[in-house]
Amino acid sequence: MSTSRPRPSFPAKLGKTAATAATSASIVSATSSKKILKPAATRLGKTEVPVRAEGLGLDSQVVRHKMVLKLQEQGITDPRVILAMGRIERHRFLDSALVNQAYEDTSLPIGYGQTISKPGVVSRMMELLLQAPSMLKKPSTQGQAKLGRILEIGTGCGYQAALLGQIASEVYSMERVRGLHDKARENLRPLSLPNVHLLLGDGMVGYPKGAPYAAIISAAGGDALPQAWLDQLALYGRLVAPMVAHGTQQALLVVDHTPQGFVHTVLEAVHFVPLKSGLA
Ligand code: SAH
User: Fold this and answer.
1) Is the CB of 40 under 6 A from ligand 1?
2) 117 has catalytic annotation
3) What is the CA radius of gyration of the chain?
4) E-assigned strand segments in the chain
């Protein structure tokens, strides 16, 4: 790529007023209260003691490690994704009756007819985001650099938002169901992630005040790509979303914003909950 080409302008700074002012979406910091999360391992001299998921006899660190090994067997290689998947405790985002299944590669109900996505698909999508043209322009930092600002459509219980917070400088995550938006806020509070911002609003219109985004990711699948997402994607940015590709079958869609225009790539079949307009 020519060195004379102007560098992309993201992560663009979001002014204080833009970050706090709410338009159609109301914004909440996921971390407004004080830190109460225990560290993943408590050091006792030289011994690391894994934290146990309360009341279940589940050694969460060990089962999470097994999950990460399986993800690697499935082809996930990016160290940033592997680190994030090992760090964020999925069982904390689930109702107690489902905690035993937290580290299986399966989607699970989170209420309101919605689901937490499969770890395999979540890590695949994060890996795709990290291969955005903006990241490939910086070969010296490959495998280490964080993405700029990300827009996530479909907060759900907040699991993926927490993961994205590990691989990006800022995360704006939108949810249309108030009950889930509130649940995600509760789930994320103890993690104290100051760069993860939750928005109650219709993700189909995006969040223009945070634009342009280095990456946009949707956890809900529609029939067509909302124009707002393309409008809000930075040059050299990447969008990853499930979309109906052939008939009724959903597939992962990747859209890269290049100087020549938007380049669309359709990947493997996936199954996500539907993208719906308006607030619920
Ligand atoms: N990110 C979640 C997955 C949640 S499922 C995880 O970590 O596993 C997808 C979510 O998208 C649902 O909660 C659904 O309510 C939400 N959704 C669907 N259409 C939406 C829209 N237009 N705007 C915002 N959220 C939407």
Assistant:
1) no
2) yes
3) 18
4) 26-29, 41-44, 47-50, 52-53, 58-59, 108-111, 114-116, 147-153, 168-175, 196-200, 213-218, 220-221, 233-246, 249-258, 261-269, 273-274
Residue 9 maps to a domain: no
What total of structural domains would you count in the chain?
Answer: 1
Give the pLDDT confidence of 94-142 residue by residue, as tens digits.
Answer: 999 999 999 999 999 999 999 999 999 999 999 999 999 999 887 666 6
4 part of a folded domain: no
The domain that holds 183 is classified in CATH as: 3.40.50.150
- Residue of 60, 107, 117, 134 marked catalytic: 117
CA of residue 153 to ligand 1 center, whole Å = 6
In a domain, 69, yes or no: no
Rounded to an integer, what distance in angstroms lies between the CA atom of residue 32 and that of residue 18? 18
Could you tell me if residue 184 is inside a domain?
A: yes
Range of the domain at 270: 19-40+122-274
Q: Give the residue whose CA is nearest to atom 21 of ligand 1.
A: 203
For 154-208, the pLDDT digits (tens) are 999 999 999 999 999 999 999 999 999 999 999 999 999 999 999 999 999 999 9
